[in-house]
Amino acid sequence: MSETLTETSTSAQAGIEQLSMQQSLNRALDQVLSGNPKALVFGEDCGRLGGVFRITDGLQAKHGEERVFDTPLAESGILGMSVGLAMAGFHPIPEVQFDGFAYPAINQIVCQIGRMNYRSRGTLPMPITLRVPSFGGIRAPEHHGESLEALFAHVPGLKVVSPSNPHDAYHLLKYAASRPDPVIFMEPKSRYWQKGPVDANDGGNLTGARVAREGRHLTLVAWGAMVARCLQVAELAAEDGIDVEVLDLRWLKPIDAEALATSVSKTRRAVVVHEAPLTSGLGAEVAQLITQQCFATLKAPVERVTGFDVPYPSGDLEDEYIPNVDRILYGIQRVLEYKRG
Question: Which residues are designated catalytic?
């Protein structure tokens, strides 16, 4: 049995444990496979190797080659097969090895997975949980650091979620794998090895946003890997007497508009942070929701700190592309110093 499963297969009844996101996702998949005989895990190198990030490590040895298996290097085939399996009553949990590898399967995702339930008048639900190692931060080559959340969120019929820490990764993956709807599960690959407390017995609210840090002067809205960076920024801002609230959006479709309104109505200022390019990024939708609900009380326009409108760069330029501490602090400064008229 694999090292990962050996480390993480102790009973979830033990309470709070320190796990990496990789370990928490591995455990969640193990428990989903154990609890649902119709669940299947597959993708490129997901079987014997355990995935390029070892998220599926040991699952084939424990659950067998018929339930955890490798596929050809053909994402359109992986997702097309997922559609057929879902029609046959299974719950597929496919993986595209890297975010950019999802592009060849866009036809299957948009035209089949997103629409089949609607097209069949509810007779053919698509209980597919598509795992997508997402975003940058690992200095990988081209097509290995994309941010596709706006593309996925735009498609009717799909739900999109991105955890920021091991605890949420564990519970949100189990929750997604229990839904009758297709869920795009965007895993921040740069956070796979960061450890944090996981309480297997307390998932809390799994359907909305999460306040990661309380604050009074301004709200930072983020998801995935950018949540940890925003928490770091909030600590630095506190040294100058600026009390920043950090809202972890988690669900990118549907967006928790109520949580946005509650937070920004209190702080009256907002900065949205994401790795994707600025133009038509999901931050634009978030900013509009905030403006629509909090227009009367906003003290400044909603600011966005994002990637740039260029293809994702090579690893050497990654630090310039991904929003860093200084750029986020400067965004906070612009909002705090804004004056009308």
Answer: 144
C-alpha 311/C-alpha 145 separation (Å) is 10
Exposed e or buried b per residue across 136-156, where buried means at least 16 C-beta atoms within 10 angstroms of its C-beta: bbbebeeebbbbbbbbbbebe
Give the pLDDT score at 235: 98
CA distance 247 to 232: 13
Using DSSP, state whether 125 is helix, strand or coil. Answer: coil
Angle between helices 166-176 and 21-35 (to 10 degrees): 20
Q: Determine phi and psi for 37, rounding to 5 degrees.
A: -65, -15
| pLDDT score, position 140 | 86
CB 41 within 8 A of CB 48: no
pLDDT score recorded for residue 5: 58
Token output for 274: 């994401």
**pLDDT for position 113:** 97
What per-residue confidence (pLDDT) applies to 259?
Answer: 98
* Residue among 208, 217, 250, 215 nearest 231 (CA): 215
- Measure the CA–CA gap between 70 and 136, rounded to whole angstroms: 25
Q: What is the pLDDT of residue 130?
A: 98
Residue 15, classed as helix, strand or coil, is coil
pLDDT in tens, 242-255: 999 999 999 999 99
CA gap 75, 103 in Å, rounded: 8
SS3 152: helix
- Per DSSP, helices labelled H in 208-276 are 226-238, 257-267
Q: What's the token pair of residue 334? A: 């612009």
Q: What letter does residue 302 receive in the DSSP assignment? A: P
Residue among 88, 59, 93, 66 nearest 78 (CA): 93
Amino acid sitting at position 143: H
d(CA 237, CA 246): 12
DSSP 113: I
DSSP 3-state assignment of 320? helix
- Under-50 pLDDT residues of the chain: 1-3, 6-13
